[in-house]
Design goal:
By secondary structure, this protein is an alpha/beta fold. It is 46% helix and 15% strand. It has 20 helices and 17 strands. The two termini are 48 Å apart. Bound molecules: phosphoenolpyruvate and magnesium ion (MG).
């Protein structure tokens, strides 16, 4: 079976399919006739869930030690709890309902009961009982619930993936992302580029394909399920060639980003988490040009503390060993939703309450982050960048808050270093006043993803408009030229950190325009370097 879709990152993946369902998937109630068969379905699913937990226990034991692994043992015991098991089987018997529904309802009931208890230990079990119930429901439905079930790396199929879901995935187990919805510029696509794995969108896959062998062709935009042997062999060969190409690119490690006529440009990496630093280094990034710090918030169940953030930023700064690390302050809202922020639903979220607007409206959140970044600055070379800027006043307010934070740290005798302050140019307003903005900051980094969406009035998430979302539009190219000129006039360095920065058909244009830096997904660094080294800008 071959299903067509749209590729958002090329490459080939071969592996088993796993369907990802939202963690809080609504379980449907249905009436069953064979009660005993349903009860035995439940018992087998329970055994399978226990086997998964036993495997997780072993894995955790090796990776995080006995104390942290113990929770998986507790979960196995909870699955054998007589009250829990009886509640489920009684419900199946007395109400003649499907096992999924009985497990989910019992999970909810027990969880509420535990949560109401006057005992800390039992209250903590409320989340556990929900967790084990979700696992059993997942086994019954033959799907995963917010985390991957298989021990093997898989091709992940999903309706769509929110950033809050992708952050929870064990990335080492994903060979490819294939979604029904999503757009070229969605964060799943960006994540696939960071991970250097093929990704397809707009693929209408059937529901009953869990566990089947498949090929993702990220060049042709195809998902092939149960491919015949000759096709499989052909793709195995293609994949081997691709791996060889990747190996050859690695020979560019340690080489300069220099054109044939001697023009140099900085090539930095975009990262979304501390663990992405490894791939930035493996691909020879000259620095981190964009650390999307909001992923720290997306990964947490509550506001990350100053200490937690400090540790993350410090780790990145130390691992980059003195190379520049540009941390972008929180950019949530729009497609990046975090429950504990309690953001209201908006008619027009991309143009709504997001990014710096939230930070300036909730200064305590902003200050906590700035304190953490300044503290980490002592351990490397950190710069701070602010997203979604539209006015000079905003920048002045930000600078005065940053100055207050520095003063506070000084008074508390907490060390910090000089930190460059820059802004993202990702609104047409910022482009038009880039001359004035340049007087206020040390650098500009162009967010072409949002700049394209706001300039062309095309929602970057809207799959229907993907074909006219054109980052090469003359309006965008004119704006890029204008940003560089205005930035340079005031002594700012100017880079690009949107996805367009990695578009090698424009590398020559960017060099000729005078950009000082391109920040791209780690997997694109060496490809862009290869391109730069083949260009003669005097031609
Ligand atoms: C951009 O808008 O181009 C950008 C780099 O930021 P993000 O994709 O995180 O919005
Ligand atoms: Mg942006």
């Amino acid at each position: 079976m071959v299903i067509e879709g749209k590729s958002v990152y090329s490459g080939i993946a071969i592996g088993k399919l796993e369907i990802f369902h939202k963690a809080d998937k609504q379980v449907k109630r249905s009436r069953i006739t064979d009660v005993e068969a349903e009860i035995s379905r439940f018992h087998s699913a329970k055994e399978e869930a226990k086997a998964q937990l036993a495997a997780l226990y072993e894995k955790a034991l090796k990776e995080v030690g006995e104390v942290n692994a113990a929770i998986f043992e507790v979960h196995q015991m909870m699955l054998e709890d007589l009250d829990y098991v009886e509640s489920i089987t009684n419900m199946i018997r007395s109400q003649q309902v499907n096992a999924e529904f009985a497990v989910a309802s019992t999970g909810d009931n027990f969880s509420e009961m535990f949560a109401a208890m006057d005992d800390d230990y039992m209250r903590e079990r409320a989340a556990d009982v929900k967790d084990i119930s979700n696992r059993v429901v997942a086994v019954l439905c033959g799907s995963s619930t917010g985390s991957l079930l298989s021990e093997e790396p898989v091709i992940l199929l999903a309706d769509d993936l929110a950033p809050s879901e992708t952050v929870q995935l064990d990335k080492s187990k994903v060979l490819s992302f294939v979604t029904r919805h999503g757009s070229t510029n969605s964060h799943t696509a960006i994540l696939a580029r960071t991970m250097n794995i093929p990704a397809l969108i707009g693929v209408d896959y059937p529901e009953d394909v869990n566990g089947r062998l498949a090929i993702v062709d990220g060049y042709e935009g195809k998902l092939m399920i149960d491919p015949p042997l000759p096709v499989l062999e052909e793709y195995q060969k293609k994949k081997a060639k691709e791996d060889e190409k990747k190996r050859l690119l690695l020979e560019l490690k340690g080489k300069e980003n220099i054109t044939l006529d001697g023009k140099k440009i900085n090539l930095y990496a975009n990262i979304g988490s501390v663990s992405d630093v490894a791939s930035a280094l493996a691909n020879d990034a000259g620095g981190i040009g964009l650390f999307r710090s909001e992923f720290l918030y997306l990964e947490s169940k509550d506001y990350p503390t100053e200490e937690e953030q400090f540790k993350a930023y410090r780790t990145v700064a130390e691992n980059m060993a003195g190379k520049k690390v540009i941390i972008r302050t929180l950019d949530i809202g729009a497609d990046k939703q975090v429950d504990y922020f309690g953001l209201e639903k908006e008619e027009n979220p991309a143009m709504g309450y997001r990014a710096i607007r939230i930070c300036l409206d909730r200064p305590e959140v902003f200050r906590t982050q700035l304190r953490a970044i300044y503290r980490a600055s002592y351990y490397g070379t950190i710069s701070i960048m602010f997203p979604m800027i539209i006015s000079v006043d905003e920048v002045r307010t930000i600078k005065s808050i940053a100055a207050e934070v520095r003063k506070e740290l000084k008074e508390q005798q907490i060390p910090y270093k000089e930190v460059e302050l820059g802004i993202m140019i990702e609104t047409p307003a910022a482009v038009m006043i880039s001359g004035e903005l340049a007087k206020e900051v040390d650098f500009f980094s162009v967010g072409t993803n949002d700049l394209t969406q706001y300039t062309l009035a095309i929602d970057r998430q809207n799959q229907k408009l993907d074909n006219i979302y054109d980052s090469h539009h003359p309006a965008i190219l004119k704006m890029l030229r204008m940003i560089v000129e205005n930035g340079h006039k005031e002594g700012c360095w100017v880079g690009i950190c949107g996805e367009l920065g990695a578009d090698t058909s424009l590398t020559e244009t960017f060099l000729k325009m005078g950009f000082d830096e391109l920040s791209v997904s780690p997997s694109m660094i060496l490809k862009v370097r290869e391109k730069i080294r083949s260009i003669d800008t005097t031609n």
